[in-house]
Protein 1
Amino acid sequence: MTEENTAPLKIVVLVKHVPDVQFDRHIDSASLRLDRSESVLSELDEYAVEAAVALVESQGGFAAGHEVIAATMGAKSASNSIKKALQMGASSGVHLNDEALIGSDTVVTSKALAALVEHVGDVDLVVTGMSSTDAETSVVPAQLAERLNFAQLTHALNVDFDGATRELSIRRDHADRTLTLAAALPAVLSVTDQANDPRYPNFKAIMAAKKKSITEVSLADLGLAAQAVGAAGSHITVLNAEARPAREAGTIINDSGQAGIALVDFLAEQKLI
Amino acid sequence: MPSALVFFTELSDAPSKAQRELLTLAASIGEPTVAVASEVPEAAVTQLGAYGVNKLLVAPANESSFLDHSLSALEAAVKESAAQVVVVANDNFSREVAARIAVRVDGSIVTDAIDISADLVVTKDELAGSYSAQAQASGGVLFVTLKPNSIEDTPQAQAVSVSVEELAVSAATAPSVRIMATEEKVASDRPKLTEARVVVAGGRGVNGDFSAVEALADALGGAVGASRAATDAGWISHDAQIGQTGVTVSPQLFISAGISGAIQQKAGMQTSKCIIAINKDVDAPVFEIADFGIVGDLDKVLPQAAEEIRRRQA
């Protein structure tokens, strides 16, 4: 990365508070909503925070006036994900919290997040993870690029920024090829788990994060009507959601020298060969 | 009867298995139109007729920038076909193109679908396949991305003739993303991991050597996969990674070798029809979901199984 004395970068990194994938996750059978009680910062968003903070560090650091604003949309507890991003080095946070947002599909989620980015104002770059680990659609970054009219650089395997030209380039897999793509800012960047190794906040960083501000934002602040978002504003309605029956363990054998043959016998029984 | 549009970025002489599943699904919904964002070979047109496709819209690629042409082609095809439902592949690129056009036309999108009924109720996986959900769109064009291995590939009893039209595509409107370089990946004779009927995957237990995993995959005509531990160790390409942060597979047969089966790994394979696990550790969580488990040394079990398959097929 080239170091140049360019205008400060204003980066928004989008983070999501999601149920911890280490545990069993549940969809409530009455509301058809995901149980979000045991939630954490989505593991894949740590790569986004790291990419944003590393980009700033490569361009003279926060002392040069660059900003990394961790932004989220979600209930009160979602601010914990912003706090984690602040510990990892983001400079401030913005939290869109409004009951009316519950039940938003991706088209509406991208509408609200685009409005949030515009509310932050003069943003050069939006950074996200490759996917959330709950809904796993991975389409919101592309939808944000569409709505904000920013260049779409998504699923980045690595990230390179040229401070002189303010051009971002990434590598991404596409069909049977790996492409190197480049675009001028403003852009939406999503990074894969190959892009970097997220830092682990040390005690100093955790203490420093306590002094950083988190701004609460409502739909009214964004100029969005309650009916335009959430379940009311979304075309998609979930009709039902059922846990698949748990898989049951089948026959387990110890190899006493013939297990490979037994494996093939099993395949033949199941008509798989 | 609703009208369905199938969108492909590319179509070779013979549609891939995942593409044939999309065609089968579209034909079950209504008279399908296919749109392709590049030149279509003559042989492929005949193939489309066999799946009941009566109209093909072709938008030959005309520029080198990334994404723009596919966006414009899909947008034009949606308008031209007046389809109520648009089905595309489940890969990242197709999802993104569909998702952006869903925004452009004020439609909606459902990803990871496994079926669409005639009245456009979409069945999909949630939480890495641990839940199954159904969803419906209340208005606008519905875009759906279909997981491979969800639909039984079935051509129509009666082939139809396909009318081919060139699609008028307007100039790109999205900010330019330039393609600076293209590296072709090493071509493999094995089936594509996400589409394969059989997947043999190796983990930490292969200890750096994937040859036994590959040999069994080849004996079964399957694809090779890996756990994140194996790809992070550099034993095999990251493209092979199955799990929460890699690809999700749902084959007829999944053979797990030397993979413990932690929750993130299970997320990538638990919807497989049949699971066989080989692991040295009797307490490995993978045995809880395996239809058949072998506690043993994969370096002995895999070659013996591969040899036995070849012997029976000889």
Protein 2
Amino acid sequence: MNNLRIDPREAIIKDRMIAVKNIWLVSGFKGGIGKSLISVAVALGLADKGRKVGLLDLDITSSTDHIILGADNLYPREDMGLLPPEFEKIKFMSFQFFSKSYPLGFRGNSISNAIKELLCVTVWGELDFLIIDMPPGFSDTTMDVIKLFDKFSVIAVSTPSPLSKKILENSVKVYKDMKIGILFVENMAQKAKINSIRFDPKIDKALGDVKKIKRTQFYKDALKIVSKIEGGGV
Amino acid sequence: MHEWALAESVIKTVNEKKEFVGKKVIVYMGELQAIDMEVFKFAMEEISKQNKKKIDFKIVIEESKFKCNSCGKDFSMSEVKKKSEEEKENIHFIPEMVKAFVKCPKCKSIDFEIIKGRGVSLGYE
């Protein structure tokens, strides 16, 4: 016997994604700029257009996609792995299904292990698009995704704030160096522009109700992003 | 049966890594993951049959060990309050979820490391 230890999970993760045609990370590096809202809106918009869509909330310690959707009591089903529950025609997976409302005190290694475990056992099946809601910052989750996925594109979210734009500018250099496709989206914009979503004070009151979300200006603007990524996006 | 998904990952890794050629594979099973051994063994056999490649393996169960980052206490699952079936199932799927349901028995901190016994890993002899 020797002390060698090999993690078997990484070998299967790429296989799990084999029938996923397009993976989009919704990333933004600053907190509170609307990544989760955009992730959910884009997933809803794609599903409404008849696309097979998955939504994965990888913001492990601060998952909110289930709150935005009003999807409180979902749980995956076991069948040769974990099958994401379907909500509003979206296959949805979140760490919140397992952590419930308890806080998760995660340091780096735990984040990597949890992500690998979830990606190893989740059976997405055939998808046109998998939308991944990323946590803020260029940290463990981002580096794990880069390591574990062969191909993906990025919706890079910023706001009109110079802080948000500056940090995004610095962070996307990594993606650019890797020749990864990037679609820049400005959220909370003051007026309508290309690839922008206008600030909508009504969006907070629509949280948890998909019908209300779909009536907001925010959602209508997000549909322009949907059309863009349907066409390849970048 | 998410044991099938884990068995698939074990078999793919063993078939791909040269370290395992001609060796008996040791599948270390962390206590936290609480794998159903019969289902796992059955899945290993069935997937091996499909691949037409038998794998010689044995399973070693590893007790969980934690270390508190706050007060330094070493502890195990046997020292913490018994978990409900629902909590156990959530830890079974994602062992790191132990951090949602367990606190250090000495200082009650949620900041602790899983030192061993989390999930599946492989070795050989």
